[in-house]
């Protein structure tokens, strides 16, 4: 249907724009409010692949939903999940667009920290700061899938850009996003940022792992008990597409997760040495980008985390911490 409207003999931009507007309206009314919608949201993924301007318009639309305090928190959080999943999985989105989106998201996060981190609400609470945590997770997830592209070509320039995002301030803030985001995403983000010496997350992860996270009350109505769950109740809407007949249309557009080999894992454990020459750039970048479904055997020292990939059999991050 989409092809019949957009490509009558040749690509028709006016028909495509009209169809895009209609689909965005359907998306806002039916898909965005539906938790863990499966596959149907790919109509947006597919039409956005026709032209970069459509993908950028969709990202801008989601961004406006995320940052608008008049929207319900659940809609803002879902918009954050869509942004992170779209940036990570859409192969047709270039690095320059990824960087522009990261700039918007990270700047908003820093402003949020400015406004919240010293006030009465400066503590870890999903109910109070759900959109912030969803945005953090979107950024972490995007970095996991796209860090190689962001560093490609000129390692020093790429590292300078990532350092400018100041992940250390985000990770160290009182709102403590590493405690709320999905553990498999946190573990891989920690491994990548440690390698490139952007921030060291493992002390915070270990501390969070020792702390009690109240989630639900016991069946007898007693004290709060800890459960192994996803505090944000978040999902990744562009998890791998598995419908057999239409899968062949999506796969060429899709960024898969690559299972990391033993050599890749060893490389990920080795931090970049200060003052490395540009001739060594390629050595640092070999085989480190996650791109296809699989399970990661371990994360870096000092704690030797055993971590799953950010995709399970359906493509969603694992919900539980694997013990230290």
TrEMBL record:
Name the InterPro entries for this protein: RNA_pol_I_trans_ini_fac_RRN3
Q: Where is this region: Disordered?
A: 272-324
Show the ranges annotated as biased composition (Polar residues): 304-315
Q: List cellular component terms (GO).
A: nucleus
Instruction: Keyword check for Protein biosynthesis, yes or no.
Output: yes
Keywords, alphabetical: Initiation factor, Protein biosynthesis
Q: Which Pfam families match?
A: RRN3
Q: Give the domain of life.
A: Eukaryota
- Which BP terms does GO give this entry? transcription initiation at RNA polymerase I promoter
Recorded GO molecular functions are: RNA polymerase I core binding; RNA polymerase I general transcription initiation factor activity; translation initiation factor activity
Name the family the entry cites.
Belongs to the RRN3 family.
Q: What is this protein called?
A: RNA polymerase I-specific transcription initiation factor RRN3
Organism of derivation = Acanthisitta chloris
